[in-house]
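pasting for ref
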Amino acid sequence: MLTTAVAADGVRHKVLTLSIVKGAVAGVGDTLRVQQGDDVELRWSSDKPMELHLHGYDIEVKVSPQAPAVMSFKANIPGRFPVEPHGQGLGHHRPVLYLEVHP
């Protein structure tokens, strides 16, 4: 689910609620798109414990069925960045999705 609000100063605040089920993000495509300068909050839940790493922004959070996690940041670096699961015997680090930050 995506919620977008625009503050009086013109900054967009994007809040995305994301759920990982059986290693894939449920209900969204493989790419999230935001604009450079947006304030972004990714709210994660997962059916299995794992660590998620947003490359490019170097943000890591631990998420589990009992403990959702949040990644909050200003999208100030344009580009395409993978979000990969780490740990818990997940083996190959296949991205669960990509974040695209457009200028």
